[in-house]
Amino acid sequence: MGKKKFFRGPVKREPEPYRVNERINAREVRVIDEEGRHLGIMDINSALELAYSKELDLVEIAPNQNPPVCKIVDYGKFKYEMKKKEKKEKKVQGGEVKEISFRPTTSLHDVEIKLKKVKEFIEEGNKVKIRIFFKGRERMMFEKGKEIFYKIFEKMSEWAEVEKEPTPLGLNQYIAIIRKKK
């Protein structure tokens, strides 16, 4: 006997954000062609015929309008462009917040290596949060933590600026860094 196969259930897919072709349930639609020209209000069957004759899809982009607005496009390409647009909008909003941690006993060489990583993050358009965390007897070294921050400031002053000054929070100290404005 071979290995026993287990049924893992149906594949879970996220629902499609747009209704396409036969899934459009309006009787009449406002149609826009692939070049962006307005073709007018048509019944759904003639709009589908027009899309199929061009070997493209009819995609409902504004379902809340009266009648709904549909565009004749290649749906795969349309989805790709929408994902690309979302990613670009996320970048414009300021990107992600990356965090790099140091200890008060971190050697200068390790600090330089971590600063290279900080520079990469900032060049990608992300904000960077630098954290110095203290353990045990290191809690007495809060001043040494500030010294490390000032060393970091000196090394990165050409390509980044401090958004938020060093703030102690429990056993940690934080600063936020962004790209230097030109």
General description of the model:
The protein is α+β, with helices and mostly antiparallel strands and 182 residues long. The chain folds into 2 domains: 19-90, Roll (Ubiquitin-like (UB roll)); 97-179, Translation initiation factor 3 (IF-3), C-terminal domain (Translation Initiation Factor IF3, 2-Layer Sandwich), CATH 3.30.110. The chain is built from 4 helices and 9 strands, in the order βββαββαβαβαββ. The strands form 2 sheets. A 5-stranded mixed beta sheet has the order 1-4-5-2-3. A 4-stranded mixed beta sheet has the order 6-7-9-8, with helices on one face. The radius of gyration is 28 Å and the shape is elongated. 14% of the residues are buried. This is Translation initiation factor IF-3.
Note the topology.
Blueprint (H helix, E strand, L loop, with lengths): L18 E2 L7 E5 L5 E6 H10 L3 E6 L6 E5 L1 H18 L4 E6 L5 H16 L3 E7 L8 H15 L3 E10 L2 E8 L3
Overall geometry: elongated
Strand order of the largest sheet: 1-4-5-2-3
What is the count of β-strands?
9
Biggest beta sheet attributes: 5 strands, mixed
Arithmetic mean pLDDT: 83
| Percent in strands | 25-35%
GO molecular function: ribosome binding; translation initiation factor activity
Function: IF-3 binds to the 30S ribosomal subunit and shifts the equilibrium between 70S ribosomes and their 50S and 30S subunits in favor of the free subunits, thus enhancing the availability of 30S subunits on which protein synthesis initiation begins.
Family: Belongs to the IF-3 family.
Keywords: Cytoplasm, Initiation factor, Protein biosynthesis
